[in-house]
Amino acid sequence: MNARDQQAARTAVHPAATLTIILVCYFMILLDNSVIFTALPSLKSDLDLSAGQLSWVQDAYTLVFGGLLLLGARAGDLLGRRRVFISGLAVFSVASVLVGVSPVGWWAIAARALQGVGAAIVAPSSLSLLTASFPEGKARSRAVAWYGATAGIGASLGLLIGGALTQWISWRAGFFVNFPIGAAMIALAPRYLPETPRRSGRFDLAGAVTATAGIGLVVFSIVNTAEAGLSSPVSFVSVAAGLVLLAVFTVNERRATQPIMPLSLLASRERAGAYLARFFYLGAMIGFFYFSTQFMQDVLGLSPLQAGLGFLPMTAVNFAVAMSIPRLIRRVGGTTPLVAGIALTLVGMLWLSRLNTGSGYLTGLAAPMVLIGAGQGLTFAPLTSAGIAGATARDAGAASGLVNTFHQVGMAFGLGVLVAVAAHASAGGANTAARLAAQVSAALTAGSILLALALIAALALIVPAAAARRRGIAAAHEDGDLGLPAGEESPAYALTGNK
Questions:
Q1: 2 compared with 355, residue with greater pLDDT
Q2: Assigned fold of 3-193+260-496
């Protein structure tokens, strides 16, 4: 038995260890999207940051994460996904320590950007390693469901963990904890994760530079608009330059012999719809966490830990529903839970947007959070599966990179838009609490619009495309064209759970 066969055998024997490593690492990078929120007041005071500097502690991570994801996916395809995964995890772990020891603001911002580099490498590799580690069928469907559940609960648990560590120890503890976890996963990864073969080829450097710079400039312009206003020359020049670079990127990808993002991935209406729906859905979700946390602390007067605990109703329902998804998908297919999940989230967000100074926690926050949690539990797994449905093994890294790119860029876009909306909301001469409540209400109303756009993308693109694909697969089965052994599922079934 050669080394590759031995590795495959170990993976088959230890699926729980394989899945645990992938999910722990993915959870860690998702955690750092939100662990900072409940710690922001303490961090601002400790490092003496201005309001603008404070926003960049979060924005630096999101911008670099979203901007470099496609390059991270391509690196895994060419150099071997396990090797790249471990390298990215090492960068992320070291950067976490650097954030934790930050003596001044610029250090914290730079270290958060470095964290984004590591996260951009780990995220696409984690999903492609998952599909490489589990055989098609129930095992992969279950693994994808766990992956989707991790994405769904990562942000809310980040708020809880960040609040607890800030209140009991220090805001720095939320970053120090990543290092021992990362070190343990780096030690275990070579034993339990399969290595994909290295492929000969070249990096699409022009594509990587134009995609990263283009996405970064567009997201920067959105963030800057929230602070400087719609008429800001910097915002206008940034978005114009970003769009030009993305146009150059598209032309380059059409001509490149080995593109960083095969445009064929967008030819599928199902995948394109999944990317678009994820973009809007995550834009609404990041605003939900950001503004609900502020409302609980600054209007209801809760501590950081209490605010984190305030999200538990949503987290518990989210997890319970997400764990039922494999069985549900086997019974009704993937598109029904997806549409129902987005719709439930929209109803919960509309309810939450009615918050005011007279709102209590139970009826104003907890009840709509239950709907949002159920919606997230239903949405993430089928939305992730739709984003990689039908992708060839050769393009698996690029497809998973796009899933995560739209996840991160959607959050950056959504937060920028919702913060801008909140900044222009007014409660007249009302006190600070009333003014903040009005801003939160306006932002969550705008978040509801983003969710409505996600629902439209699902109904107009994903649902009809998935139905057409199912009909095509059924016809191929009848004609005997699939060449599958009796009882085995096609890759499309295995990835999406649509039957």
A1: 355
A2: Growth Hormone; Chain: A; (1.20.1250)
